[in-house]
Specification:
The complex is a heterodimer of chains A (about 130) and B (about 600). Chain A has about 130 residues and is mostly helical. Chain A has helices spanning about 1-20, 50-65, 65-70, 95-105, 120-130, and strands spanning about 30-35, 35. Chains A and B meet through helix 1, strand 1, strand 2 and helix 2 of A and helix 5, strand 12 and strand 16 of B.
Chain lengths: ~130, ~600
C-alpha cells in the first residue's frame, strides 16, 4: 500500500512539474522519495563494564589513539585505519610484551609520534590497562 | 471565568513574571510543574566567583541547562521540571565541583565551592592555547599565523596544541595531514597539500619549540569570565549521539573541561542547522552513516533521523540546510552534487536531478532567494535551481577559485565568498556578475617566502599564508542594506553595503578567535560563531560593539549559527560539529 502511495506521489509530482515545465524538453523532472526513518541514536557507555582505571585509559585511548587505530564509519562505508587495529594486542600478554608496547607508545615510529613528552606515567598505566581489555 | 482581553493577558503575564525575578517563565520548558534552582559559587577561600558556568541535567534526560553566576556569585536557573538533577560548576583554573539536587514545587538550593588548581592546561579553550604560545618576537607571531592558517581549515587548533611531540613527531603528523581531507580520511594516492608542504619544516620546528620536549611551562593567557550581559544567558545543550556507536568517545564530549579536547574520531555530525516552521531543529549531516537529515524536538530532546539512499543504498550526505517560506528544507546534496528538498510535514525528500548540460556540482553551502529558489556555491561560481522548471543555471565568477559562503541580500542579489583570493562574487537579478575585492590585510608579519607561496599556488579555502583574510561564510541582513562576512584568518567581521559595495571591517575582541559563519536576526544584530572559540559573539551594528557568550562545552567546533526570530529577543541555535550536540541560547 505504501509503495502504491509512493508511486502515486512520484507520478503526481512529475505531473505537476510537467505542467509547470517551461524549459527545454531535455530537463529532468523532480523525483519525490519517502524518507526512511533512521535507527534510534545510541546512548553512550551502555555496553561496557570497565574498572575506573580502564575507563580513564579508554578516555585517553579515544582522545589520542582512536583516529588512526579504530575503524571509523562514514556515509559511504569505513575507510581503512592508518595504523593496526589493537584488538587482542595485550590480551593475556606476558610482561615483556606489555613493556614493549609501553616503549612503543613512548618512542613512536617513523609514522607515529612518540607520546613520552605528554602522557604522564599514570596516563600510560591507564592506557595499558585499557589496551588489555580490547 | 470571563475570557481575558489580550491586554489583560499581557498584564497578568507581566505580573506573574515580576513574581519570579531572574527566572522568567519564558524560559520554562519541557514539562509543567517544578521550580528553579538557586545558589551561589565561591572559591575555597570564601570569595564569590562571577561568570562561573553552572550546569544541571535531569535524571534520564539528554539535555543540559547552563547559567552563569552574577557578580555576587549567585545564580538562578530557569524553571526546571520536577526531577533529580546533577549540578556542576566550572571555571578555568578551578577543579569542577558537583552536587545533586531534587527539584520539586519548591526552589532547589545549591552552594558550591571551587578549589583552585595548580595545573589546569587541559581546561584551556583553543583560543587560550593559542594566546598562551610564545610570541617573544615577530618570527613567533608569524609562525602562529602560519600554524593557524594551515591547520584550522579543517579543525580548531586545540586538537593540535594539547599534544606535545619532538620535531620528528610533529613532522610525521604534518606529513599525515598533507594527505588528509576535510572528512579526516587519509588518502595515500592524493597529491599532498602544496601549502602545507611549503611550510612543513618551519611548522615542525615551531611546534617542537612551542609544544616539544624542551618547551617552557605554559603561562596561560586566559579570557575573562562572562560578566554583565555576557552572563545573562541560558544555554541548553542537547545530545546528538550517533546511531552506529555507543562508544565512550561520547562520554568524553567536552562537558568536563579538565579532560581536554575530544577526538575527532566520532565527531562531526551536525554541520548546519535551521529552525523549522514547526519549531523543531533540523540539521544537515555529512558524516554519520544512515542519516541524511536529522530533527531535534527542543521540548523533549527527542531526535529523529531521516535517510535518503544513494544508488548504493548509503545515506546521501548533506552539508547545509535552509528553510524556505513554505517550511521546506533545502539541502546541498554532496553525494549527487544537486539541490535536495525535504518536506518535514510529509517526511519526503524531493530530488532535483542536474542535467549533463550543467556539469558544475552543487557545493557545500546554500541560500534561498525571495522566489523560493535555492542557490549554492559551486567551483568558480554559483548554481541556482529554478524549482518550478527544475532548471539549473551556473553563474561563473570573473576570477575563478574555490568558493565557500553564500547569501541572498534584501534585493535578491546573490553573494559568494572566495576565501583563497579574498574576493566576493555578486550576481544581480538580471544575472549580471560583478565582484568585490577586500582591501589587502595590513600585516608586517609576512616575509618574502609568504609572498612567494601566495603568488605561486592556487589558493583554496583551507590553507592560507599570513597575508590572507579568508572570507569564509556570510549572510545578509534580510531587512537591511548590508551583507556581513566572516574573515576567518583575519579575525575580522566585514560589512559590505549592497548598493555601494563599500567595505567596513571590525576586528573581533580577541585574536585567534576565527569567525567561521554568521547570521543576522530580525533586529539587525549579527551573530557570529568562532571555530577556535567555545563561544559565540553578537555584534550590534548600532553601537558597533561585540558581546561574547561563552559556551559550557570544550571543543565545540561550530560551523554554523541560526536565529529563531519567533521569540523576543531572538533565540540563537548552534550545532557543535566537534562533539555531537546542538545548543540553544536564550537571553535574560
Amino acid at each position: 500500500m505504501r509503495e502504491i502511495k509512493t508511486l502515486f506521489r512520484i507520478w503526481l509530482a512529475a505531473f505537476v512539474l510537467a505542467g509547470l515545465h517551461s524549459g527545454p524538453a531535455s530537463l529532468l523532472l523532480a523525483q519525490e522519495a519517502p524518507a526512511i526513518k533512521g535507527p534510534a541514536p545510541k546512548q553512550p557507555g551502555t555496553d561496557e563494564k570497565l574498572t575506573a582505571q580502564e575507563l580513564r585509559g579508554e578516555g585517553t585511548y579515544f582522545q589520542y589513539c582512536a583516529l588512526c587505530h579504530v575503524p571509523r564509519k562514514q556515509k559511504a562505508g569505513a575507510p581503512p585505519t592508518l595504523g593496526p587495529v589493537h584488538t587482542g594486542v595485550l590480551k593475556n600478554a606476558p610482561p615483556e610484551k606489555e613493556r614493549a608496547v609501553r616503549e612503543f607508545i613512548r618512542q613512536g615510529t617513523q609514522n607515529m609520534p612518540g607520546y613520552q613528552y605528554m602522557l604522564t606515567s599514570q596516563e600510560l598505566d591507564d592506557l595499558i590497562a585499557y589496551l588489555k581489555t580490547r | 471565568m470571563p475570557r481575558l482581553s489580550r491586554f489583560s493577558q499581557v498584564a497578568l503575564l507581566a505580573v506573574l513574571l515580576a513574581g519570579f525575578p531572574g527566572a522568567p517563565d519564558v524560559f520554562s520548558q519541557y514539562a509543567p510543574g517544578g521550580n528553579v534552582l538557586k545558589g551561589s559559587v565561591k572559591s575555597s577561600d570564601g570569595k564569590p566567583l562571577e561568570g562561573v558556568a553552572v550546569s544541571m541535567r535531569g535524571e534520564g534526560k539528554t539535555f543540559t541547562t547552563t547559567v552563569f553566576t552574577e557578580r555576587d556569585g549567585t545564580f538562578v536557573s530557569p524553571r526546571l521540571e520536577k526531577n533529580k538533577y546533577q549540578v556542576w560548576a566550572q571555571a578555568v583554573g578551578f577543579e569542577m565541583t558537583k552536587s545533586e539536587v531534587q527539584i520539586t514545587d519548591q526552589a532547589g538550593q545549591a552552594a558550591l565551592s571551587l578549589k583552585p588548581l595548580q595545573d589546569y592546561h587541559k581546561q584551556l579553550s583553543a583560543q587560550e592555547w593559542m594566546a598562551s604560545l610564545p610570541e617573544s618576537d615577530s618570527r613567533d607571531l608569524r609562525m602562529k599565523s602560519v600554524l593557524m592558517n594551515n591547520c584550522t581549515g579543517c579543525h580548531y587548533v586545540g586538537r593540535i596544541l594539547q599534544n606535545r611531540f619532538d620535531s620528528t613527531g610533529w613532522a610525521a603528523m604534518i606529513k599525515l595531514m598533507q594527505k588528509t581531507g576535510t572528512n579526516g580520511v587519509y588518502t595515500p594516492s592524493v597529491n599532498p597539500n602544496p601549502m602545507m608542504v611549503a611550510y612543513q619544516e618551519e611548522l615542525a620546528g615551531f611546534l617542537a619549540k612551542a609544544r616539544g620536549p624542551a618547551s617552557p611551562t605554559l603561562t596561560p593567557k586566559l579570557l575573562p569570565r562572562p560578566t554583565g550581559d555576557a552572563a545573562k544567558v541560558v544555554i541548553t545543550e542537547y545530545d546528538l549521539p550517533r546511531n552506529d556507536v555507543s562508544s565512550t568517545i561520547l562520554k568524553h564530549d567536552g562537558t568536563d573541561w579538565s579532560e581536554g579536547f575530544s577526538s575527532r574520531w566520532a565527531s562531526r555530525a551536525p554541520h548546519d542547522i535551521w529552525v523549522g516552521l514547526d519549531g523543531n531543529i533540523y540539521w544537515a549531516d555529512d558524516m554519520v552513516p544512515e542519516q541524511t537529515v536529522g530533527k531535534l524536538d527542543p521540548r523533549t530532546g527527542k531526535v529523529t533521523t531521516y535517510k535518503l539512499p544513494d544508488k548504493d543504498g548509503h545515506a546521501v550526505s548533506t552539508h547545509s540546510i535552509v528553510v524556505d517560506h513554505k517550511g521546506n528544507m533545502w539541502l546541498t546534496n554532496q553525494t549527487e552534487g544537486t539541490h535536495l528538498m525535504f518536506n518535514p510535514k510529509t517526511e519526503t525528500f524531493t530530488r532535483f536531478p542536474r542535467p549533463d548540460s550543467v556539469p558544475q556540482r552543487v557545493g557545500g553551502t546554500n541560500a534561498v532567494d525571495s522566489k523560493g529558489n535555492p542557490w549554492a556555491v559551486a567551483a568558480d561560481g554559483a548554481i541556482k535551481l529554478d524549482v518550478a522548471t527544475g532548471k539549473y543555471t551556473f553563474y561563473k565568477a570573473i576570477r575563478p577559485g574555490a568558493t565557500y559562503g553564500i547569501a541572498v541580500d534584501s534585493e535578491d542579489k546573490v553573494w559568494v565568498t572566495f576565501p583563497g583570493i579574498d574576493t566576493l562574487m555578486v550576481v544581480d537579478t538580471a544575472g549580471n556578475i560583478s565582484e568585490v575585492v577586500l582591501p589587502p590585510l595590513k600585516t608586517d608579519l609576512a616575509n618574502d617566502k609568504d609572498r612567494e607561496v601566495m603568488a605561486s599556488q592556487r589558493l583554496a579555502a583551507n590553507s592560507a599564508t599570513p597575508l590572507q583574510k579568508g572570507p569564509r561564510r556570510m549572510w545578509a541582513d534580510p531587512k537591511g542594506n548590508y551583507v556581513w562576512v566572516a574573515e576567518y584568518f583575519a579575525d575580522q567581521l566585514a560589512r559590505i553595503d549592497i548598493h555601494t559595495k563599500e567595505v567596513k571591517e571590525y576586528p573581533l575582541p580577541h585574536r585567534w578567535s576565527q569567525p567561521y559563519a554568521l547570521n543576522v536576526d530580525k533586529n539587525h544584530n549579527v551573530w557570529i560563531n568562532m571555530l577556535n572559540r567555545d563561544a559565540i559573539a553578537k555584534f550590534d551594528p548600532k553601537t558597533e560593539r561585540f558581546t561574547e557568550y561563552q559556551l559550557p562545552t570544550r571543543g565545540t567546533e561550530i560551523r554554523h549559527i541560526v536565529p529563531d526570530n519567533s521569540t523576543d529577543p531572538p533565540t540563537i541555535w548552534v550545532p557543535y560539529d566537534g562533539v555531537l550536540k546542538i545548543a540553544r541560547l536564550q537571553f535574560r
